[in-house]
Amino acid sequence: MDQANMDSFEALEREMAIFARRLEGARQSWRKHREIDRSAYLILLALREEGELTAGQLAARFLLDISTISRQITPLVEAGWIAKERDEDDKRQLRLSITEAGVEALEATRASRIELYRELVGDWTEEERRTFLGLLRRLNERIRARQQAERT
After folding, report:
1. Per its UniProt record, what Pfam families does this chain match (predicted)?
2. How far apart, in whole angstroms, are the C-alpha atoms of residue 53 and residue 66?
C-alpha cells in the first residue's frame, strides 16, 4: 500500500472516531424530545416498516443472537411500545408488532433526529447531501456484509 492511501486510511480512522463521539454528544445535548435508545429505535423502525416479526427475525435482521434481541425487546413490551401475540400457525412463536404508543415514541425520536441533521447539514447542497448519503449507505452495507461473513 502506498503512502497516499495509508494516509487516507489513517485520516478516515481518525475522522470516524471523532464523528462517532461528536454525533453522540450532539444528540445528547441537543435533544428536544426524550429520545429512545438506538436499539429500541431500530427495533421499532423495523416493526413499523415490515409489520409483525418474530424475535428470531429481528435477531437475524440485526445480526444478533436471540438472547440479545430478547433483552432489548423486553423493556419495549413493558413500555407498551411493542405487543406480543402467539403465532396462529406455530403456537411456540411470538409475533411482535409496534403499538400506537410505540409509533408515537418512534416518530418523536425521528422528528428530533431529522431536525438535528437539518441543522448540521442544512447548508449543504442537495447534491452534497445525496453524495454523503450514498457513501454512508455503501459503508453501512459493507459493514453489514462483513458482520454477516464473520457470523458464518
Report:
1. MarR (PF01047)
2. 13
